[in-house]
Amino acid sequence: MAFLKFNKSELVNLSYSLKREILSANKTGAYCNTSIVTCNTRRYHGLLAVPVDEFGGGKYMLLSSLDESLVLEGKQFNLGIHCYGDTYEPRGHKYIVDFDQDPFPVITYKVGEILFRKTLMMVPDNDQILIKYELLDAPSKVSLQLKPFLAFRSVHGLTHQNSEARTSYEEIDSGVAFRMYKGFPYLNMQLSTKASWKSVPYWYSGVTYSDEYRRGFDCKEDLFVPGSFFLDLKAGESVVFSASVNEVAAKGLKRKFTSVVNKAEPLESMHDILVSNANLLKCRRNGRNRINAGFTWLETGLLRETVVALPGLTLYADGNTAEFEEILDTLIADEQERLFKRTTQVAAPLRLTDTIQQYIDFTGEEKRIWMKYGETLKGIIESYGPGRRKEVTLHPNGLLWAQADGVALSWMNAYVNGRPVTERAGYQIETNGFWYNALCFALEMESKYGPEKNDFIARWSPVRDLVKKNFQPMFWMEDKRRLADYVDNSHKDEAVRPNQIFAMYVHYTPLDDEVIGEAIMTVRNELVTKRGIRTLSPRNVAYRGVYEGSQIDRDLAYHQGCAFPSLLNVYMDLAFRLLGSKFCKRAEYLTEGFYEDLHKHGVGLFSELYDGDPPHEPHGAISSACSVAALLRVDYLMNKYKEEK
After folding, report:
1. Residue 2 reports pLDDT greater than 60
2. What pTM was computed for the model?
């Protein structure tokens, strides 16, 4: 991944470098996220954020930053950088001469004759970050000062100077430990080489996060700096700094760092980069495997995002079927309420059928998989029966009607001033497409593997037949030669949106081939871009092609024109089924741009969404589970159909 490099002219240009972020995460759910010059621009940025079980498993920022200073012959050079209002101080980025990520972020500084390098690394199996400092060259002995900035707050919030903060510390092996508030874990800061600690407690006020300011959010906080570490280095020497929720053996830090480096998988292909991204988004904590929807502000274990991303992050990444089942089993155990009682994304439980179908297609183990998960899938179908869910109603025509005043009951759930941008109350096309698919699949499996006298088949077969009879007349617009996005009591919504793709894509589609052929052309002509599928056609007056501006501006654009990579694999799966290997070149054209953008937004990462308008700049979460999973599935499909040529 040597192409993920930035030169001095790029690094010293803050308008460029502050828009590029680095991310390191591990299997425990901890992460490090900052800009490539280590200036934090978001509240979510910091060197060590960890899940805190005492607070429900939410992520909390412990160590915000660590400022380095080099002292040579009485002269001090500060390498850190912080924003205070309109001022950056210190301006240590001016000393940076090189950045690369292969696979860990490595930043090189040049101060006169001093050449200094640091490497940031999250330890895979602990809430711990290691930072290795190397004095590559110097005319004489150099003194290194390390000044930690402590936050101890939720990653979603900000902190300020207060009298309740516990600013005292405990001495530990080659370091100090802080716990500023009750319930938090200790932050243990240690060095591999003996260093002196000088306690100079001070609150740095008005630290400003420029990205939050640009978006109109609260953007200033106060960070506690308890003091500094001091040690001397000679040319060729190195030291490893550790920040962890557990005290570790300081003498073993260098060995630990080297061990993690040696175990790191080389990134030699685009598939390797995708697999590396997939590993960032899967975590195992307290014996439970779950998927993080995205870094750094999206949650872990969400129903829709897990159902959508699970096959890509496991099956199509490395064929890990055991991990697939572990994550799915955890999800089912955690999401009983949403799966069987109520949810604001009414299609999400039904999408579990598609996830299981992909699993069967991948493994061929139809009977075993149905015997394990069949009761869950049947239970979901039963939960959509008459009177079972308040947010969705099964109508006599077999279709599902979703409505709750002022609530967006689909994945298009952005709000402005408390009102949904795309409420879509009525018969949603994707919900009913997944409904028909779930019914057909469950009935077929029960006919194969269920009891001879089967109440489920008797009860739900007539509903399936009704959906088949009424779906196409309900959504097909003959004069427009396309499908309605949703239908309410007064009209068929004519907006060209990607939700119709799902009704065409599912294993059991209620649509005729001719209708699919016409509708897919509309999707191709109006929604498909080189960075995913638009959420609304540019021909619509409500279309917004750029995701920028205030929170309201961005929420209005989120599902009104932004392109989502997560929709691409559904479109491509359908296209491959229709066109076979002839679609391979087109598939390559539609995916190559994501790899061209690996130096933007999140370095080496795949973003949540892109502008609908060219040049399709990346936005949203810098690392998205659904985006990575979609690209992994597309990669799998392209290889599959290339082999069939």
Report:
1. no
2. 0.96
